[in-house]
Design goal:
Elements: E1 9-10, H1 23-30, H2 49-63, E2 76-84, E3 87-93, H3 101-104, H4 107-120, E4 129-136, E5 142-148, E6 156-161, H5 168-185, E7 190-192, H6 194-198, H7 203-211, E8 221-223, H8 228-236, H9 241-248, H10 253-266, H11 280-293, H12 302-308, H13 314-330
Length: about 325
């Protein structure tokens, strides 16, 4: 179960190392498979391999290392904007230490990051985003997250650490990952629990809501029977979920991380990254990011099956093509 919709991704999870794709992969990535029988164009390989290739390769490389900054600063909110379609407005400034004022007042960078996100994700697919918040916890810690707003469980906030936005490889991966949470946890997929939203620290309320839900229950509420996350959970998580839940009960952060690493090592062929082993919510969004940014898998591991899962939904194949097309145009050269 996620922490009520909060999602965090370390900026250090994606490096900037460049690599050369082989000729066959590059040729396959530029082919467009057109079917006269299907209304959706299926792009088998990732387009813009000079962009998507380094993103996926560096994620794979860094996931095998410790990653992350050893110094984690307190997360400090800087400014929050109101989102209306493609536009942000009405910046509300927080009280911050003097050393963070330059970042708080860096409207150019804040606007640039929002415009990049808006360019990547089609407007009709992000209408639940009503806030855009900028924060910082220092370099190479949490890059971004999405959360339900404080006033409406059906409305969401995109939050980005301005200190980590210079690397557009890591920024792109994280924004695609974060959109995966909106896609799989939004109100059209998961009915928000008013009881949990209004009393998020009450374990008894949470347990009552979970018990009343006939399908998978992420932190936000009861998933719809035909939702992506419910189908994903039923296909991939029923046999390992209880074991994974034991990790979430561990409050000591070091022991929690040790248990998660051991869980991942035990089921490594089931996850595209170690972070995906955190819970079903992170697993589906990491798999989503690989679906969008990577080539169509040709293997038969469970991790491959999780990426192939999204190809079963024509609307998601179409959305993938739209995001990749936007990426080819919007990625800074």
């Amino acid at each position: 179960m996620a922490d009520l919709g909060d999602e965090e991704v370390d900026a250090s999870e994606v490096a900037t190392e460049e690599f050369v794709t082989d000729v066959a992969a590059e040729e396959a990535a530029t082919e467009e498979a057109v079917s006269t029988e299907a209304p959706v164009e299926v792009i088998e390989g990732a387009v813009c391999v000079d962009v998507t290739g380094p993103i996926i390769e560096s994620v794979n490389a860094v996931s095998e290392s410790d990653g992350g900054s050893e110094t984690v600063l307190e997360e400090t909110p800087l400014v929050t904007y109101v989102v209306s379609g493609d536009e942000i407005s009405d910046p509300a400034l927080e009280t911050v230490p003097s050393e963070l004022e330059d970042q708080q007042l860096d409207e150019a960078t804040q606007q640039q990051v929002w415009e990049y996100y808006a360019a990547l994700i089609p407007a009709e697919n992000r209408d639940t985003i009503v806030e855009y918040s900028v924060f910082t916890d220092g370099v190479d810690n949490t890059l971004a997250m999405v959360t339900q707003t404080k006033t409406d469980p059906a409305a969401w906030s995109l939050q980005v650490d301005i200190a980590d936005t210079a690397n557009y490889y890591s920024l792109t991966y994280t924004l695609v990952h974060e959109y995966g949470h909106l896609l799989t946890l939004g109100p059209d997929q998961v009915t928000p629990s008013e009881a949990v939203f209004n009393d998020p620290e009450n374990v008894d309320v949470l347990n009552e809501e979970v018990a009343a839900c006939p399908d998978y229950f992420p932190g936000e509420g009861c998933s719809n029977p035909d939702s992506y996350i419910n189908a994903f959970y039923n296909q991939f998580w029923t046999e390992i979920y209880e074991e994974n839940q034991e990790i979430s009960y561990e409050q000591d952060p070091d022991l929690n991380q040790q248990m998660l690493t051991e869980f991942y090592d035990k089921y490594q062929d089931q996850f595209v990254t170690e972070y995906a082993a955190t819970n079903p919510e992170e697993d589906i969004t990491e798999s989503w990011a690989f679906f969008v940014l990577g080539d169509k898998p040709t293997g038969d591991s469970i991790a491959d099956q999780k990426v192939l899962f999204f190809y079963n939904y024509p609307e998601l194949v179409e959305l993938r093509s739209a995001i990749l097309g936007n990426l080819c145009t919007a990625f800074p050269q």
